[in-house]
Amino acid sequence: MPQDNSLCLSAHDELYFIDPNMVIYLQADDHYTEVFYTTGAHFMVPFGLVKIEQVIANLPEVRTHLVRMGRKYIVNTRRIFRINTITELLYLTDDDGNNVSLHISKPVLRNYIDSLNKPNCENSRKELTISRND
């Protein structure tokens, strides 16, 4: 049974439920979206990312951690463990410790990092700067 914060998408005579707590990322594939879960499961839904973004926007408890990253991805920011703007890679992890790397443009990654560094940002994180010379 779907949870209250599930993304509910309807098409024709079908309903699709996506559990946002299980999402690592969603990837655009033409007019479809492939959903990748933390369990390793993945499946296709007949909706573009724009439609899914609209549903996410109506769920305050979800929109803070499911974030659009460029044209191709919506990412669960709770699964990010590394961002490398030089190689343009975003690293995510699943429940089993497997890593996924997504190629995301440098400007998109920098904008995301800047949003984390804003002092009044809801989802700000404290930065720890470590010198490599230590």
Task: Give a short summary of the structure.
The protein is an alpha+beta fold and 134 residues long. 19% of the residues lie in helices and 37% in strands. The protein has one domain: OB fold (Dihydrolipoamide Acetyltransferase, E2P), CATH 2.40.50.
Name some characteristics of this structure.
134 residues, 5-stranded antiparallel sheet, disordered C terminus, alpha+beta, 3-stranded antiparallel sheet
Report on this model:
- The model is unreliable at 121-134 (pLDDT under 50).
- The chain is α+β, with helices and mostly antiparallel strands and 134 residues long.
- Strand 3 (23-29) and strand 4 (32-37) form a beta hairpin.
- It has helices spanning 49-57, 60-63, 106-117; strands at 7-11, 14-18, 23-29, 32-37, 42-45, 66-69, 73-76, 80-84, 89-93, 99-103.
- It is globular, with a radius of gyration of 16 Å.
- The chain has one domain: LytTr DNA-binding domain (OB fold (Dihydrolipoamide Acetyltransferase, E2P), Beta Barrel).
- The strands form three sheets. The protein has a five-stranded antiparallel β-sheet, with helices on both faces. A three-stranded antiparallel β-sheet has the order 8-9-10, covered by helices on one side. It has a two-stranded antiparallel ribbon with strand order 1-2.
- The relative contact order is 0.14.
- It is built from three helices and ten strands, in the order βββββααβββββα.
